[in-house]
Amino acid sequence: MSLMKHFGRVVLSAVYVCALLLGSSCEHRPLEDLNTTHFLRVYLNESIQNVTCGFYDDSRKNPEYHSPELLRVGVYDKYTGELVSERYLYQKGSDARGNYLQGYIYAPVGEYNILAYNYDTRTTQTQSENDYDKIVAFTNTLTEGESNRLFSRSDASTSDNRGEWPHQIISHQPDHIFAARMEGVQILPSEEVDTLCTPQGCYPTAEALVKTYYIQVNIKGAEYVRSAVALISGMAGSKTLHDGQMVKDDVTSLYFPLNNAAEKMRTGNTTHVAYASFNTFGKLPHVEGYIDITFEFKTTYNTVQTATFRLTDMFDTPVVQDKQWIIIDKVIEITPPEGEVGGGMQPGVGDWKQHEGSIVI
Fold first, then answer.
1. CA-CA distance, 316 to 217, in Å (whole number)?
2. Both ends of the chain: CA-CA distance in Å?
3. Nearest-5° angle of CA 138, CA 259, CA 235?
4. In terms of C-beta density within 10 A (0-12 exposed, 13-18 middle, 19 or more buried), how is residue 208 classed?
5. How far apart are CA 25 and CA 264, in angstroms?
6. Are 55 and 69 a contacting pair, CB within 8 Å?
7. What is the C-alpha separation between 58 and 55, in angstroms, rounded?
8. Backbone angles phi, psi at 74, to 5 degrees
């Protein structure tokens, strides 16, 4: 009986303590007060060469583009770089300045660096999101299965130009990621929801971190081509978001399909070209080695033909730097089937089928 009384006193004491604790906090406080909630609008600079403007040929098959639907906003301590809070902007709008995303973020009084980037990319990923100076955008490398399919028809014993390529890193193309930064933002005490702006008093603008290049090469005998792909080396595999710089020691190669089109030459004759648009974080300025591109053509009679060109010097030309057009003034001749001199149907624009085949390097 005494044991039951003791137990009852313990329960009553616990209830009494809880009541005191609850009673001492009679004021309801929301999770986010007015002086820690801030309005933010981020504009998008969607003027992207070879994607939304600056096409080499408007009639060609150009890349699809979708405006971002969601921005992640990270608030980082100015001095430590550590993440303090994060929110997402999804309210879309547009005005004379362009498209934007807006909403509310949380930050207590203090000094911060603020980073906003779109969070709805398919192939582009981010890592080290909790550190302002280390967060990077990247894409995954090809899996073992994808690499095996890429090189499945290659025969190292018969291919003279395969070299060390199977040991190189090959990555998926990045899709377009945008980033806006505001550094040294000072949050002061306020009884109202304030608006965050740049030091110039403007809303920040998110710039594209990915470039899109257009590339083409002349083809003779395009009627014998069933499909075509290309592999380009010497590209950056990632970028840091806080400054938009390429990671210098992250070198990769990119793999992409080719289209075909007819083009009238200056002489008045018509030729066929293999062309494509590909996305990259950029060409590294101090790549050890060379920038090469290898084209592979799968013929209608089940053979594979390749051609490799060195592009290192081309990337320093004004056309490539300003317009991001890589026009290879060479002709790749596709060997006709044995015993056939001509004939076959001339392919129309985009008639080549895309395939997951091998590429002989």
1. 18
2. 89
3. 25
4. buried
5. 80
6. no
7. 6
8. -105, 130
Q: Which two tokens stand for residue 116?
A: 């906003």
Pairing of strands 270-280, 259-264: antiparallel
Cα–Cα distance, 148 to 160 (Å, whole number): 19
Q: Structure tokens of 231?
A: 């592999």
Distances (CA, A) of 234 to 168, 218, 251, 269: 10, 23, 6, 35
Mean pLDDT within 192-206: 92
Site of tokens 């996305």: 279
SS (H, E, C) the chain: CHHHHHHHHHHHHHHHHHHHHHHCCCCCCCCCCHHHEEEEEEEECCCCECCCECCCCCCCCCCCCCCCCCEEEEEEECCCCEEEEEEEECEEEEECCEEEEEEEEECCCEEEEEEEEECCCCCCEEECCCECCCCEEECCECCHHHHHHHCCCCCCCCCCCCCCHHHCCEECCCCCCEEEEEEEEEECCCCCCEECCCCCCCCCEEEECCEEEEEEEEEECHHHEEEEEEEEEEEECEEECCCCCECCCCEEEEEEECEEEEEECCCCCEEEEEEEEEEECCECCCCCCCCEEEEEEEECCCCEEEEEEECCCHHHCHHHHHHCEEEEEEEEECCCCCCCCCCCCCCCCCCCCCCCCCCCC
What values do phi and psi take at 188, rounded to 5? -105, 160
Written as one letter, the residue type at 113 is N
User: Rounded to two decimals, what is the model's pTM?
Assistant: 0.81
Structure tokens, 37? 């909630």
Rounded to an integer, what distance in angstroms lies between the CA atom of residue 184 and that of residue 112?
5
* Type of residue found at 142: L
45 and 205 in contact (C-beta within 8 Å)?
A: yes
pLDDT digit string (tens) for 75-93? 999 999 999 999 999 999 9
Residue-wise pLDDT for 213-256, tens only, equals 999 999 999 999 999 999 999 999 999 999 999 998 899 999 89
